[in-house]
Structure formats: C-alpha cells, structure tokens
Please model this.
Amino acid sequence: MSELFLVVNSHFTDEDKEQCQSTISKLVNLADISRKRGLLELLREMENEQEGFLKIAMYLICDSTEETTAKEILENIVLSGEYSGAPLLDRLLITEAALAIQRGENPRLLELRLLSMLGEKYIIEHQRKK
Model:
C-alpha cells in the first residue's frame, strides 16, 4: 500500500468509500480480463474508457513500464491534482490495482487488497454478500 494512501486515508468519509465500490468492481473485472485473456485484451477494454486516470494507469502497465516508474508517475499525477474525497480515493485505488495487475496478482486477492483500503467494515460486508 502506498505511503501516499496512508497519509490521506483519514480524510475519507463513509460516503466517499461507498462511491468507490463501483471502481473496485471495475478494477477486479480488469484484473480478471488481464489474467484470463492478457494485456492486449486489457488495452482493447480501455479504448472506450472515459476515465482518463484509469486509461493512463492501464496503458503504463500494458507498455511494461517498470513498477517503480509506473507508481511514481501515477502518484505524481495524484499529487499534482487538487483531488479530495471520492475522486482522490478512486485514483489511489486505481494506482494500487494497476500495480497489482502488472504483477499478475490474483483478482480475488486484489479485491481483498482494495477493500482493505476502505476498512474492515467493507471486507465484512463483501463477505456477507457472497
């Protein structure tokens, strides 16, 4: 988990975290696509994507950018913007997910990792839904 996330985590409300649940679902789906069909299919998925930061993150990992470089670029973008609340949390989740996808992390483990960034309550809620 990034140091940046640890610094700003206390600023997120439950409403911010609720809004980011759809981002987590999308990221886990992208991880599934990458794992089952490869990075080229992930690029095809990005063709119609509207979220600019997500596109940048996915293009970085699909171009085989070194992990530390990709992380630095993504965190620089986050730090240079004036993001707060759910938009900031979305970008932090995307950064974490992109790097995990690049490492080939299991999508279920990625889901747990991202939910852990929201807090224990969200992991428990997710497990109850299953």
Q: What stands out?
A: The mean pLDDT is 89. Residues 20 and 90 are 6 Å apart (CA to CA). Residues 16-129 form one domain.
